[in-house]
Fold this protein.
Amino acid sequence: MNDMSKPPVRKIIHVDMDAYYASVEQRDNPELRGKPIAVGGSAARGVVAAASYEARKFGVHSAMPSVTAKRKCPELIFVPPRFDVYKAVSQQIREIFAEYTPLIEPLSLDEAYLDVTQNLKGMEIATEIASEIRAKIKQVTDLNASAGISYNKFLAKMASDLNKPNGQAVITPKNGPAFVEQLPVKKFHGVGPATAEKMHRLGIESGGDLREKTLEFLVEHFGKSGPYFYGIARGIDERQVKPNRVRKSVGAEDTFSQDLHSYEPAREGLQPLIEKVWDYCEANGIGAKTVTLKVKYADFNQITRSKTVPAPLPAITDLEEIVALLLAPIFPPRKGIRLLGVTLSSLERQSSGTEPQLQFAL
């Protein structure tokens, strides 16, 4: 690590729980262990929120329509989600993190970045910290976690996928650029399907291809994301691990492979986006008062519809209800819909006497 010009080298850990919701359900119900299960609704418009590893072998994954999942895996068992339990377990995991560092940045209930460059245990080796944290999570919650260790957030996130489930991997400063060079851009964290498709059109298939493009070229084609892509193509990511942050907004969107023309598929397509933004707010102890629906049509024209309520939304069902209200008047649409998005804004920290460090939620 002495070949890095900027001492000290940061030590970042990305912890990611394995099939989190599904694993909690299998832990709490022995009859579900070893079986293909999906957390979510089995109804015609249901969506898979999480799939056990047994279900993933059949190609079932989160955000998949339940009818598709059942077709891929006829033995699939659907279990309704219990967000209160997932949040409580997440709190236990968060408390373990806080024993090692105050620099914890949750991404959702089941994953977070930790900066352990300076840590509360005075431990020198980040891989040992990651092993210890994973062992403690197993001991306290009886759940498996995977971890990625590296010198920046991007590579730590990529490393946590390498030895899943129940494993960890390291990407060193020496190996970082070479790792990125051979990585397909569609696997890059921060590159969604639409961006990957655009990169492919520009002849960018791998990190090596991305590295050949100038900063000017990337800014021209990808705007404010250009400098980020330029950096990660070289294994460089200067973003800090930011605890206790309240963003101005949190949003998620999806471009569909086929244009949507009717209400039911649109509402179904919005469900994983609703769960994603709600999950983030839950993990960070944030409440939202404004909901915005984004609709982009086949001709690339787009509209937004918003609703603001007097107090932060108390439950995910309230968010689902508002999204449904905003969506309904758009149908029948004048053209096919190619993209839908949900954004929460007017965000504020939720105060709680019993949980003074809610920002450490995982």
Observations:
- The chain has 13 helices and twelve strands.
- The first strand starts at residue 12 and ends at 17.
